[in-house]
From TrEMBL:
Taxonomic path: Eukaryota, Metazoa, Ecdysozoa, Nematoda, Chromadorea
Name of the protein this chain belongs to: Phosphoacetylglucosamine mutase
Cofactors that this protein relies on: Mg(2+)
Textual note on the cofactor: Binds 1 Mg(2+) ion per subunit.
Residues the entry annotates as binding substrate: E386, A387, N388, R515, P516, S517, G518, T519, R524
Xref: PANTHER family: PHOSPHOACETYLGLUCOSAMINE MUTASE (PTHR45955)
Enzyme Commission identifier(s): 5.4.2.3
Main EC class the enzyme belongs to: isomerase
Organism name: Meloidogyne enterolobii
Residue ranges annotated for the Alpha-D-phosphohexomutase alpha/beta/alpha domain, each copy included: 32-86
Length: 553
């Protein structure tokens, strides 16, 4: 291929939705079909570019466990997808011959599960995927889920392989949400204010009501609510969810001035939100494929305060920690390994909260969900979140065994409360992938459980150290190289790290780093300082350094 190679990064392939991407999807689909045949399991293909603009698209593969493609396969897939026609033909013929040689083995028909979000280019890429699958020359069961979220695809793949009901990607969470109401004291709960939800004009807007409606929530078009100025009288136990940015028919609107990534980076209200929201109004944003969730609220200065993935991680961790401590108080020793996993983007004050208030030292990994997920799998309860709002909680077989033993053979009232709550929590989250909708259900339950406003949530965990992020477009992100084990330092270009350190030293209590994106032709800048103004100033200084280096290319 003559174009710049597309690397299978932390979120799969991402690029402009052009002919090069079509070819990449075509070849990757063949690779997925081969993998499904060899494993004798269903393999998933998600066609999306997540938080990228609507003109982009991409692809990521999902392994039979419902988790991401095994890391050892990424380099091989990148090579196959970007190879010459001759190289691809050679790979294809060798794999087909190998399958023919093993025909006597009683392997089941391979299953490929394909899902697309609402991007205009998804239909064409789906057709290319089907063509690539058919290259295998044998019967392949293709299951297509149009207009689905990325987390739903992960869940569906695992459900198929575990022979569980596929529609549980909604029903499990609805059942858990209904069950959660048993643990809420509605008489004392005085903080059931409306939620203002930005759906990024993405696929999440098609699904959120199906999870929430008639289950303690009612969803309304936020623009209509704002226009009317009032809503019919609601039961005091029902939460109104005002939905904004729900236009999935115009691809140009996707993630455009809205969505979790926009809110996180710009620290601004999303497009179409009322500008006169009262201070402390609870707000949240999905990203385009609904695998990221950010909360925020307007403050007294007319700006917004973010409660991002680190804060979601904090409220999750506080809740689980309380249940484990409750067990100890009751003389029960729950021998479960519990840990928190973060990246260098985690706010410095969040790390201090976990270490000093909860006595849990977070494990820091490289940026990218695959690295956090891999680390979380080493715990019986492993929470991983990125500051961008992507994350979930992993539960081991040992955890589920303990819950089962705690519930079995006992009357309902005899089951310890902490067992009930841990069991409920494990059903509210989507443990196979970061899921904006499932995480929202869980946060909304926990806020009512603790009887907190969004400001109470911040007050009872931590306030963010002022930080700022910039994305700098570059022609070649590969110029910027970090060590394998530390993404907060740059090895190349030579001498750039000294310039970064010199800039940081000009500001009190500051830290900052520059790293290449794993999915886009951009370099990301992150800075923390005593004030937002200083954090922005520091980031702008680092942007000048990046631009100066790119001019040398």
């Amino acid at each position: 291929m003559t174009s710049r190679p597309l690397i299978y990064g932390t979120s799969g392939f991402r690029a402009k939705a052009d002919e090069q991407l079509q070819l990449i999807v075509y070849r990757a689909a063949f690779y997925a079909a081969v993998r499904a045949k060899k494993l004798g399991k269903a393999v998933g293909m998600m066609i999306t570019a997540s938080h990228n603009p609507g003109c982009d698209n991409g692809l990521k593969l999902v392994d039979p466990s419902g988790r991401m493609l095994a890391m050892e396969c990424e380099e091989e897939l990148t090579k196959i997808a970007n190879g010459t026609e001759e190289e691809f033909e050679k790979f294809k013929n060798e794999e087909i011959q190998q399958i023919k040689n093993n025909e006597e083995k009683d392997n089941p028909t391979p299953i490929i599960v394909i899902a697309t979000d609402t991007r205009p280019s998804s239909a064409i890429l789906y057709e290319e995927a089907v063509k690539g699958i058919k290259l295998l020359g044998i019967s392949v069961d293709i299951k297509y889920f149009e207009h689905h979220t990325t987390p739903q695809l992960h869940y569906i793949v695992r459900a198929i392989n575990e022979k569980k009901p596929v529609d549980d990607y909604i029903q499990q969470f609805r059942r858990a949400l209904e069950k959660s109401r048993e643990f809420l004291n509605f008489e004392e709960n005085t903080n059931l204010s409306p939620l203002y939800l930005d759906c990024a004009n993405g696929v999440g807007s098609l699904w959120i009501a199906k999870y929430l409606e008639n289950n303690g929530f009612i969803c309304k078009n936020g623009l209509d609510v704002t226009k009317e100025g009032e809503v019919e009288n609601l039961d005091k136990n029902i939460i109104l969810v005002n939905l904004f940015n729900i236009n999935t028919n115009d691809g140009e609107l996707l993630n455009n001035g809205c969505g979790a990534d926009f809110v996180k980076i710009k620290t601004s209200l999303p497009a179409n939100f009322p500008t006169n929201l009262p201070v402390g109004t609870r707000c949240a944003s999905f990203d385009g494929d609904a695998d990221r969730l950010i909360y925020f609220y307007p403050n007294l200065e007319g700006k917004i305060c973010l409660l991002d993935g680190d804060h979601i991680c904090a409220i999750f961790t506080k809740f689980i920690n309380e249940q484990l401590n409750e067990a100890k108080t009751n003389g029960e020793l729950i021998n479960l390994n519990f840990g928190v996993v973060q990246t260098a983007y985690a706010n410095g004050n969040s790390t201090r909260y976990f270490s000093e208030k909860l006595n849990i030292k977070p494990l820091v990994t490289k940026t990218g969900t695959k690295h956090l997920e891999e680390a979380a799998l080493n715990y019986d309860i492993g929470i991983y979140f990125e500051a961008n709002g992507h994350g979930t909680v992993y539960f081991s077989d040992k955890f589920y065994k303990l819950i089962k033993e705690g519930e079995n053979g006992k009357e309902k009232e005899q089951v310890p409360r902490y067992i009930k709550l841990l069991s409920l929590f494990s059903k509210l989250v989507n443990e196979v992938d970061g899921d904006a909708i499932a995480d929202l259900l869980t946060v909304e339950f926990l806020l009512r459980y603790f009887n907190w406003t969004i400001q109470d949530w911040e007050k009872n965990t931590y306030s963010n150290c002022p930080s700022f992020q910039l994305k700098v477009p570059v022609s070649n992100r590969n110029l910027f190289v970090t060590p394998e084990d530390n993404e907060t330092k740059l090895l190349q270009p030579i001498g750039i790290q000294n310039k970064i350190d010199e800039c940081v030293s000009k500001f009190l209590n500051a830290r900052a780093f520059i790293r290449p994106s794993g999915t886009e032709q951009i370099v990301r800048i992150y800075s923390e300082a005593n004030s937002l103004e200083e954090a922005k100033q520091l980031a702008n200084e680092l942007e000048k350094i990046v631009k100066a280096e790119t001019l040398k290319e």
